[in-house]
Amino acid sequence: MTDPEIRPADDWWRSAVVYQVYPRSFADADGDGTGDVNGIRARLPYLAELGVDAIWISPWYPSPLLDGGYDVADYRDINPEFGTLADADALITEAHALGLRILIDLVPNHCSWDHPWFKAALAAGKGSPERDLFWFRDSEDGLPPTNWPAAFGGGAWQQIDDGQWYLHLFDISQPDWNWDNPKVVEEFDSILRFWFDRGVDGFRIDVADSMAKDPALPDVPLHNGKPTREKYVGNPFYDQPGVHTIHQRWRAIADEYADTPQGPRVFVAEAWLSPAERLAQYVRPNELHSAFNFDALRAAWDAKELREVIDHTTDNLWAVGAPATWVLSNHDTIRHRTRYGRDRRDALEGAGVVPTDLELGLRRARAAALLELALPGGAYIYQGDELGLPEVEDLPEDVLDDPTWERSGHTVRGRDGCRVPIPWSGSEPPYGFGPGSGQPWLPQPADWAGLTAESQASDPSSHLNLYKQALRFRREHPALGEGRLIWDQDAPDGVLSFTRDPGFRCVVNLSSAPVALPEHQKVMLSSEPLPNGELPTDVTVWLEV
């Protein structure tokens, strides 16, 4: 096996910092309150100046937006609310001219009930070839075919007028594709080539562990009297062996483009799988290129737990020749400023559930950013994390858009709090999100004036400028990006300290008291001031050694 430190120069993805854009909430060019492709185009210079290597754009396809675009009605076009294919082509060209690569979302487990193939399946009737593109089943006694739960609440089967049921692992509006049908396989081959030929550099694979199902359709075990939602080994609809056949086929398609002037096309897997041994199966040499490491996202702000996650992740991914890929937040999770401002037991609970110390959360978010960007491999930044945005926990109920809100019977507020549109400039909403004073699709807090990109740009100590400095050092320093780390064995309890060759050390103080900094080492960057030559609690420092 090739050592992960020895790679061709065009394997950019092994150490890339990728910025996630959620299109509805990033920037609005036409003033209708919804972000769009031309809004992204207008902000490309901002992203280039920030210092990221690539942009991942969440679904921009035609969609009824019942699940924020992850209910796709047409995989080969752009949602008219977001723009046109010509706008997308221009974005790809302009991003490449700035040195930015473009990844887009692929949603292969399910489509929208507005997709023409699903509409045809409903019209065609039982036993038709159209229905075999999806999971339609009969059942006995009017009960669902299995007890499988849906991710957004309720059961995973919906009955239609002729008595059959269709499978939807997420929302009722998202019927699952039948990947045992060759026509589905060939359709997604074509979709990949359509976008690769238009110049995209890769795909983020939504729920990359879900496409294959156990054809026997066994029930899942009960937990506290309800069907388990655990992704246990042998789960009939997650992490089935058949997903690897699909990934291997896609990797072969991506490899067809390896020798083009644009360079490799790549995939990153979204697969919420633990432990890391399971995730490593998705990034073997003939499968996907990388995978999000969600164990780090779920870890408490605790030195022992974080070190265990880092070691377990890197050891298992290096064993298959893959890089680690670190992430702190995304469009599905509570923003990490809020998460780190909570008691560790409650950090991942829903909005409004537990009290949050946002100042503590911001301090830890700054420290976490430097830790993330110092670790070996790649990193992802969710839009607004570079501004230190918190979760918006008090959105009015009448604006909540996440299907979880409805499917849970209005008991789980869902993910809208991390999807509130970005504040760019000005002293009041909409903070430059779009032209004029029209309000965006989700309301922004009245106290975000100090968090805008404009207000932070001129403050050397701002969260935004911390990211810019860190990303600049990461590009320039030969120790950062892909490679290895060596833990410093003499670090005090509660302190993470590691070195990377040549000449770099990262120290994170997660203990309850300041600690002495190593002597005769120059400070490159710190997440907070360093009084009296000590490293305060909840602070990270980068040192030259």
TrEMBL record:
Gene3D superfamilies referenced in this protein's UniProt entry, alphabetically: Glycosidases, Oligo-1,6-glucosidase, Domain 2
Domain Glycosyl hydrolase family 13 catalytic, residue spans: 20-419
Organism: Kribbella pratensis
Family annotation (InterPro entries): GH, GH13_cat_dom, O16G_dom_2
Family annotation (CDD domains): AmyAc_OligoGlu_TS
Domain of life from the UniProt record: Bacteria
UniProt name for this protein: Alpha-glucosidase
Similarity-based family: Belongs to the glycosyl hydrolase 13 family.
